[in-house]
Backbone:
């Protein structure tokens, strides 16, 4: 689907027009087109093929022509012309959090800022802060944004890397002579971002398998191709590229190689020390006493022989896993009995509540909370108070029709800038399940934002604090939240903290989960799905939870429905 690319281009055209100070109606028309394309459920190419482009809302004749042009030629001449019409370094400024088109225009016209280095210069000299319409606070934000943008690596978010890795592994499984393929590295450990992918193949003839690997249809370029190892670059779904390493090992060393190449390096260093103390040697070929192989055919044999409880990949970070006297059973996907944060067409979801609920039932869930946005989330089509009352009624009706799953009537209620909630208690009390989240004024200082969030948690109807830090992986910094205070408030008020499993969020992150678990605070792993396909993200959340050492009992949506209802009621009754 080219929907996403096209929507990005139309947005960029709007930004460029805005930087140039052109007429508002033209800017808005591109923005509307971008939005329509982004929200489109169908493939834009299919719509174009059916000659139906001009029927889409906000898409006129000339916009339709531009879409056709892109589909035929891979670019839009108007877009190219716009890019040419401004200094070459300007468009890059759009990627810096805090720098919108208006501020770019201002800095460009008043201070001749035409790129990132100019921007740094005028921040350091104080000139930028002196501009009318800028101010010290926004310059501070831009400076932080600049730092963030530079720190954003080309690491790939887990949610993009995972399906790609599985697809490549599947291809390699079909190669003749390959008996087993596993994915190792940071992906197997469930890290939130991935540097490169590491595949491990069991086979005898390494060279032939490496050749099959480097000639995969995904290969953009070959970095290395040897007797037992190959490296290639492949396309990511979002257009960027990612490196993939493939190693071929014999059967007797497969477990040792899998252990070694799963890492982390820090974990491996510790494990090797344990071997050395026993006067043994541990490497990617096995565990050895002199020339005798003691273990290595499978991973577990290595840990067993070394007298260490088996460590699941997500725990292999040298964060205390060697101090465990016996392994704890971490949460698994199978433990999940429902999803407690989802959106429908009532607000900004793509699917109606019934379809969402039936799809959740097909996953084997016992319950799903439908939690559309509250009234202040205007961009997300949040429900007015009237609409919310009708939504509650509609969902209760829906529940009567469903016998395979229970819909928990809910909402995702905005936590307003002053810490109050976006709906009156009467509405919240009429719901079964409330997620409360921050969607605005995210730049408040640490004290203010922490007070705001903890105040919302005091409300007896708030079950879960949604995506607590509001970070977006590689795209938006977390809010400056005092997480220790939030965890303490969660413990005090019996509020769960969300581990939002959406691939762009993974919020709480692994370290925050660990803090919560250590404090006995409950987690709720939710996908925040806006369509049926997004339910699949639960596995990203579970991987992150495992990295935070969460067990099933730490997670509220592993509870059977009656116990979950009791848990919700307990907080309400205490108040
Ligand atoms: P990434 O790719 O940056 O997301 O992180 P990893 O952990 O996948 O790192 P990568 O791909 O460089 O290497 C895969 C694993 O191989 C790593 O987790 C541990 C092992 N490994 C790589 N280099 C070394 C090393 O110098 N010493 C040890 N002990 N292990 C290593
Ligand atoms: Ca890697
Ligand atoms: Ca690697
Ligand atoms: Zn949401």
Residues:
């Amino acid at each position: 689907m080219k929907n996403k690319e096209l929507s990005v281009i139309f947005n960029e055209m709007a930004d460029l027009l805005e930087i140039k100070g052109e007429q508002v109606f033209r800017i808005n028309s591109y923005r509307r087109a971008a939005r329509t394309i982004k929200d489109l459920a169908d493939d834009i190419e299919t719509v174009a093929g059916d000659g139906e482009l001009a029927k889409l809302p906000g898409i006129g004749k000339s916009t339709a022509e531009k879409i056709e042009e892109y589909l035929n030629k891979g670019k839009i001449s108007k877009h190219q012309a716009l890019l040419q019409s401004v200094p070459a370094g300007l468009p890059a400024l759009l990627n810096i959090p805090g720098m919108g088109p208006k501020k770019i225009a201002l800095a460009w016209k008043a201070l001749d800022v035409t790129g990132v280095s100019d921007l740094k210069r005028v921040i350091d000299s104080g000139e930028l802060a002196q501009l009318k319409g800028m101010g010290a606070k926004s310059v501070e934000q831009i400076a932080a944004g600049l730092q963030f943008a530079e720190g954003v690596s080309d690491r790939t978010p887990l949610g993009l890397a995972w399906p790609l890795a599985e697809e490549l592994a599947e291809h390699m499984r079909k190669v003749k002579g390959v008996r087993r393929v596993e994915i190792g590295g940071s992906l197997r450990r469930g890290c939130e971002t991935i540097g490169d992918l590491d595949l491990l193949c069991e086979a005898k003839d390494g060279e032939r398998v490496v050749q099959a690997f480097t000639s995969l249809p995904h290969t953009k370029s070959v970095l290395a191709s040897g007797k037992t190892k190959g490296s290639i670059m492949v396309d990511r779904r979002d257009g960027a590229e990612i490196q993939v390493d493939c190693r071929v090992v014999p059967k007797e060393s497969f477990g040792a190689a899998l252990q070694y190449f799963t890492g982390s390096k820090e974990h491996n260093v510790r494990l090797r020390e344990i071997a050395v103390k026993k006067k043994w040697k541990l490497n990617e070929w096995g565990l050895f006493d002199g020339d005798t192989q003691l273990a290595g055919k499978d991973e577990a044999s290595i840990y067993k022989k070394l007298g260490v409880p088996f460590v699941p990949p997500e725990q292999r970070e040298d964060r205390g896993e060697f101090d465990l006297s016996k392994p704890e059973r971490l949460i698994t996907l199978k433990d999940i009995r429902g999803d407690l944060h989802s959106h429908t067409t009532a607000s900004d979801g793509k699917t109606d509540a019934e379809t969402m609920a039936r799809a959740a039932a097909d996953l084997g869930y016992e319950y799903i909370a439908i939690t559309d946005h509250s009234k202040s989330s205007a961009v997300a089509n949040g429900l007015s108070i009237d609409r919310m009352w009708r939504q509650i009624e509609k969902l209760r009706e829906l529940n009567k029709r469903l016998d395979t799953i229970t819909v928990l009537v809910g909402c995702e209620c905005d936590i307003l800038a002053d810490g109050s909630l976006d709906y009156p208690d009467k509405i919240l009390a009429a719901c079964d399940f409330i997620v409360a989240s921050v969607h605005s004024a995210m730049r408040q200082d640490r004290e203010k934002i922490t007070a705001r969030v903890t105040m919302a948690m005091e409300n007896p109807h708030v079950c879960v604090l949604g995506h607590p830090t509001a970070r977006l992986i590689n795209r938006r910094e977390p809010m400056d939240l005092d997480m220790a205070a939030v965890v303490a408030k969660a413990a005090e008020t019996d509020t769960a903290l969300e581990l939002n499993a959406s691939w762009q969020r993974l919020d709480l992150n692994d370290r925050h989960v660990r803090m919560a678990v250590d404090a006995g605070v409950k987690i709720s792993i939710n996908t925040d799905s806006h369509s049926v396909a997004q339910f699949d993200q639960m596995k990203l959340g579970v991987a992150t939870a495992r990295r935070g050492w969460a067990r099933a009992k730490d997670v509220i949506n592993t509870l059977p429905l009656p116990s979950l209802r009791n848990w919700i009621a307990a907080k309400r009754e205490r108040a």
Remarks:
- The radius of gyration is 26 Å.
- The chain has a mean pLDDT of 95.
